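explain this.
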Amino acid sequence: MRNLCGRVGATAAVTAAFVVVAAVVGGATLAPAAAVAAGLGAAGSVGARVAGAPEADLAFHGRLWMDGGQVELRMTPQNHGPFGVADATVRLRWSAPLADEQRLPAGCARSGARTVLCRTGALPADGWGRTLTMAVRLRGEPSEVVLGIDTVWGGGAVDRNHRNDRQEVLVLDTGDSYVF
């Protein structure tokens, strides 16, 4: 397994697009403010310094494999605490474009040609969230792809440790499993 640590930062454009995309998750169309109130997303990154905000340390663990241009992902979010979060949003960015049609799990929405945003659900302090399982088809059949994983929104909590919630994983089209 090759785990590439790199710069994975939220941009204002992607965050703004997230609020709009997140507003339609679950079939209901909400105004951006209503999406935030519903726990679907917020502008800004989880690392923003907010006076008096609770602190949580989110991490993502899992594995992925690719065969014939289809990437399978199994990932479980973890919160090292000290506070729990009601919901968070993880961004999954592939280095290759996704095929036009995708079947994404509930709580996930496409946000561009290479990006999917997913809700984690509740993450208790010092606990694990529900496992996210998905398969995405890439456009064409690339021999490799890099998956970037990062937290876009942490439920209003401050996360000062980005060594475990931002990572990049190289996956070769061999059918082998890559653990992160």
The chain is about 10% helix and 35% strand. Residues 1-49 have pLDDT under 50 and may be disordered. Helices lie at 12-22, 32-37.
